[in-house]
Amino acid sequence: MNLSLVVQQSPGITAVAHAIQLAVAPVFLLSGIGAMLAVLTSRLSRIIDRGRALEAQLAASPPDAATHIHAELAALARRAQLISRAITLCTITALLVCAVIATLFLGAFASFDTSVPVALFFVAAMVTFFAGLLFFLREIFVATANLRIGPR
Questions:
Q1: Domain total in the chain
Q2: Is residue 5 assigned to a domain?
Q3: Which own/partner pairs from 50-59 qualify as long-range (CB within 8 Å, at least 24 positions apart)?
Q4: Burial, 79: exposed, middle or buried (Cβ in 10 Å; 0-12, 13-18, 19+)?
Q5: Is residue 99 situated within a structural domain?
Q6: Which of 88, 97, 86 is nearest to 32 (CA)?
Q7: Eight-class DSSP state of 10
Q8: Which of 41, 71, 82, 86 might form a disulfide with 139, Cβ 3.0–4.6 angstroms?
Q9: Which of the 8 DSSP states describes residue 8?
Q10: Residue 52 resides in a domain
Q11: In terms of residue numbers, what domain contains 139?
Q12: Domain contains 13
Protein backbone atom coordinates (compact mmCIF):
# COMPACT_ATOMS: atom_id res chain seq x y z
CA MET A 1 0.00 0.00 0.00
CA ASN A 2 1.37 3.35 -1.01
CA LEU A 3 1.68 5.68 1.98
CA SER A 4 1.16 8.77 -0.16
CA LEU A 5 -2.36 7.57 -0.94
CA VAL A 6 -3.20 7.10 2.73
CA VAL A 7 -1.92 10.52 3.87
CA GLN A 8 -3.44 13.13 1.66
CA GLN A 9 -2.45 16.69 2.28
CA SER A 10 -4.84 19.54 1.90
CA PRO A 11 -3.92 22.24 -0.61
CA GLY A 12 -3.66 24.75 2.27
CA ILE A 13 -1.03 22.73 4.10
CA THR A 14 0.89 22.22 0.88
CA ALA A 15 0.84 25.98 0.21
CA VAL A 16 2.05 26.77 3.74
CA ALA A 17 4.80 24.15 3.51
CA HIS A 18 5.91 25.66 0.21
CA ALA A 19 5.87 29.19 1.74
CA ILE A 20 8.01 27.95 4.63
CA GLN A 21 10.49 26.43 2.17
CA LEU A 22 10.69 29.73 0.30
CA ALA A 23 11.03 31.75 3.51
CA VAL A 24 14.01 29.80 4.86
CA ALA A 25 16.62 31.71 2.83
CA PRO A 26 15.29 35.17 3.79
CA VAL A 27 15.25 34.08 7.45
CA PHE A 28 18.95 33.21 7.25
CA LEU A 29 19.55 36.57 5.59
CA LEU A 30 17.67 38.20 8.45
CA SER A 31 19.97 36.56 11.00
CA GLY A 32 23.02 37.82 9.09
CA ILE A 33 21.60 41.34 9.07
CA GLY A 34 21.00 41.01 12.81
CA ALA A 35 24.66 40.11 13.31
CA MET A 36 25.65 43.13 11.23
CA LEU A 37 23.42 45.36 13.35
CA ALA A 38 25.12 44.00 16.47
CA VAL A 39 28.53 44.98 15.06
CA LEU A 40 27.29 48.45 14.12
CA THR A 41 25.67 49.15 17.47
CA SER A 42 28.81 47.97 19.23
CA ARG A 43 30.89 50.42 17.21
CA LEU A 44 28.43 53.22 17.96
CA SER A 45 28.64 52.41 21.66
CA ARG A 46 32.44 52.60 21.59
CA ILE A 47 32.30 55.92 19.72
CA ILE A 48 29.91 57.35 22.31
CA ASP A 49 32.05 56.10 25.22
CA ARG A 50 35.19 57.63 23.69
CA GLY A 51 33.39 60.91 23.08
CA ARG A 52 32.23 61.10 26.69
CA ALA A 53 35.75 60.39 27.92
CA LEU A 54 37.18 63.13 25.71
CA GLU A 55 34.52 65.62 26.82
CA ALA A 56 35.48 64.90 30.44
CA GLN A 57 39.15 65.54 29.59
CA LEU A 58 38.32 68.73 27.74
CA ALA A 59 37.36 70.71 30.85
CA ALA A 60 40.73 70.12 32.49
CA SER A 61 42.88 70.46 29.36
CA PRO A 62 45.25 73.29 28.47
CA PRO A 63 44.39 75.19 25.26
CA ASP A 64 46.91 73.33 23.06
CA ALA A 65 45.53 69.94 24.14
CA ALA A 66 41.95 71.23 23.80
CA THR A 67 42.51 71.84 20.09
CA HIS A 68 43.54 68.22 19.62
CA ILE A 69 40.55 67.00 21.68
CA HIS A 70 38.15 69.14 19.63
CA ALA A 71 39.56 67.63 16.42
CA GLU A 72 39.12 64.12 17.78
CA LEU A 73 35.59 64.93 18.95
CA ALA A 74 34.76 66.19 15.46
CA ALA A 75 36.03 62.93 13.95
CA LEU A 76 33.99 60.94 16.48
CA ALA A 77 30.89 62.97 15.62
CA ARG A 78 31.41 62.18 11.94
CA ARG A 79 31.91 58.49 12.71
CA ALA A 80 28.76 58.42 14.86
CA GLN A 81 26.78 60.03 12.04
CA LEU A 82 28.04 57.46 9.51
CA ILE A 83 27.37 54.50 11.82
CA SER A 84 23.92 55.87 12.61
CA ARG A 85 23.10 55.98 8.91
CA ALA A 86 24.44 52.44 8.47
CA ILE A 87 22.27 51.23 11.37
CA THR A 88 19.22 52.95 9.88
CA LEU A 89 19.79 51.38 6.46
CA CYS A 90 20.47 47.91 7.85
CA THR A 91 17.32 48.16 9.98
CA ILE A 92 15.34 49.10 6.87
CA THR A 93 16.95 46.09 5.18
CA ALA A 94 15.72 43.83 7.96
CA LEU A 95 12.22 45.30 7.65
CA LEU A 96 12.24 44.70 3.89
CA VAL A 97 13.33 41.09 4.38
CA CYS A 98 10.47 40.71 6.88
CA ALA A 99 8.18 42.10 4.17
CA VAL A 100 9.50 39.42 1.77
CA ILE A 101 8.68 36.70 4.29
CA ALA A 102 5.23 38.14 5.08
CA THR A 103 4.44 38.50 1.37
CA LEU A 104 5.38 34.87 0.75
CA PHE A 105 3.00 33.74 3.48
CA LEU A 106 0.21 36.07 2.39
CA GLY A 107 0.57 34.75 -1.14
CA ALA A 108 0.32 31.18 0.13
CA PHE A 109 -2.88 31.92 2.03
CA ALA A 110 -4.52 34.30 -0.45
CA SER A 111 -3.29 32.39 -3.52
CA PHE A 112 -1.93 35.31 -5.50
CA ASP A 113 1.27 35.70 -7.48
CA THR A 114 3.94 37.08 -5.14
CA SER A 115 6.79 37.15 -7.64
CA VAL A 116 6.70 40.89 -8.37
CA PRO A 117 6.29 42.19 -4.80
CA VAL A 118 8.82 39.70 -3.42
CA ALA A 119 11.34 40.65 -6.12
CA LEU A 120 10.80 44.38 -5.44
CA PHE A 121 11.14 43.95 -1.67
CA PHE A 122 14.25 41.81 -2.11
CA VAL A 123 15.94 44.22 -4.53
CA ALA A 124 15.10 47.13 -2.21
CA ALA A 125 16.57 45.15 0.71
CA MET A 126 19.78 44.53 -1.19
CA VAL A 127 20.06 48.19 -2.21
CA THR A 128 19.60 49.39 1.37
CA PHE A 129 22.03 46.77 2.69
CA PHE A 130 24.58 47.82 0.07
CA ALA A 131 24.18 51.46 1.09
CA GLY A 132 24.45 50.54 4.78
CA LEU A 133 27.68 48.66 4.10
CA LEU A 134 29.03 51.68 2.22
CA PHE A 135 28.36 53.92 5.25
CA PHE A 136 30.02 51.31 7.46
CA LEU A 137 33.04 51.24 5.16
CA ARG A 138 33.22 55.03 5.17
CA GLU A 139 33.13 55.02 8.99
CA ILE A 140 36.03 52.57 9.03
CA PHE A 141 37.99 54.86 6.69
CA VAL A 142 37.36 57.84 9.00
CA ALA A 143 38.36 55.75 12.05
CA THR A 144 41.60 54.52 10.51
CA ALA A 145 42.49 57.95 9.12
CA ASN A 146 42.42 59.28 12.69
CA LEU A 147 44.11 56.23 14.16
CA ARG A 148 47.16 56.85 16.29
CA ILE A 149 49.14 54.05 17.84
CA GLY A 150 51.94 54.70 20.27
CA PRO A 151 53.09 57.97 21.83
CA ARG A 152 52.11 61.29 20.29
A1: 1
A2: no
A3: 50/76, 51/76, 51/77, 51/80
A4: buried
A5: yes
A6: 97
A7: P
A8: 82
A9: P
A10: yes
A11: 25-145
A12: no
